[in-house]
Amino acid sequence: MLNIKTIDRALAKYIDQTRQSDPSCAESLAIYGALLKEAAAIAAENTTPVVQWSEDELKAVLEDEDKTLMQGGQIVIDPAHFEASLRRMAKVFLASVETDDEARKLCEEVDWSDYATASLADLAGTDPMQYMQAIVELSPDENVLDLFVLPVVGFTLRAFLDASATHASQRLEALVPDTVHEERRLACPVCGAPAAIAAVVETPRNGNIKKLYCTCCGGSWKFERIRCAVCGTEAVSDLEYVHDEADDKHRLHVCKNCDSAMPTVFAGDETGFCPDVENIYMSRLAGFWEEEKSRKEAEGEA
Ligand SMILES: [Zn+2]
Ligand SMILES: [Zn+2]
């Protein structure tokens, strides 16, 4: 759930921690944090009713990985409101980054109405992954696409999906007991995107459980503790946690089977936990993991 107070608190903590030790991380937190806060503001003003999927629809996505809630009942996105929100988000982005005049001009030339036609808004509310794919195909300049259009579109879309996705995730969570271990979903049950980040959180009665979080729509769902969140393998010998010695709360769940490294936060109490800010903060671990890998390879050769 996009909550300005939670976002602000998490941003302040990590920007403070990294300002000296890792300035590039502090900078990403400031830039993407500004977009995240704008998304929370747009979401708070959004008057579109929260989608109430039926219990049968909820149960169907728990049983069938190929189904998503949004495919069965779309989140209505008003094209004009979406376009205005894209412009708003673009402004915030350009105000928070330093760019040269040439790059700024390219960004300012982006015509947001291209990304918010009636049919694209319809697609965005039904299948966000396909919508993002359509955006990629629409954009002529690769740099402008990666560095500007995709973040602006992604954070804006999130603002429109967040309330319905959060509500549905709470209802889904209530349908899945902590202690029954049937196979859980890899892709987000609400929108179908892959999980961005995992967390191990405390439950009142059943100890720690693992949850996955989707930063595309704001959905979250329970997952097996010992299972790769990317390829789904449960082979214990393929899975391990790696982390910086100084910080065992932020780890990578590394899978040998698919060569992935899922950022995983040992969050304790879920109250105040902000998956979106954690996701930005944990991008710093990608560099750490590259170093670890080359160290391990060197050890293997020695
Ligand atoms: Zn999702
Ligand atoms: Zn894997």
The radius of gyration computed from the alpha-carbon positions, rounded to a whole number of angstroms, is 20 Å
Mean residue pLDDT: 93
> Rough shape?
globular
Number of domains: 1
Q: Order of strands side by side in the largest beta sheet?
A: 3-2-1-6-5-4
CATH class: Alpha Beta
Number of strands: 6
- Ligand catalogue: zinc ion
The low-pLDDT segments are none
Distance between the termini: 48 Å
- CATH architecture grouping: Alpha-Beta Complex
- CATH topology, anyone? FdhE-like fold
Description of the structure:
This protein is α+β, with helices and mostly antiparallel strands. The chain has a single domain, classed as FdhE-like fold. It is built from 11 helices and 6 strands. Strands 3-2-1-6-5-4 form a 6-stranded mixed beta sheet, covered by helices on one side. The longest helix has 34 residues. The chain is globular and about 50 Å long. The site of one zinc ion has 8 residues, from loops.
Considering the chains and any ligands shown, give keywords for the structure:
52% helix; 302 residues; 6-stranded mixed β-sheet; binds zinc ion; FdhE-like fold
What can be said about this structure in brief?
The chain has 302 residues and is of the alpha+beta class. It has helices spanning 4-21, 23-45, 55-63, 69-72, 79-96, 101-108, 118-124, 128-138, 142-175, 275-281, 284-301; strands spanning 197-203, 207-213, 220-223, 239-242, 250-255, 260-268. The site of one zinc ion has 8 residues, from loops.
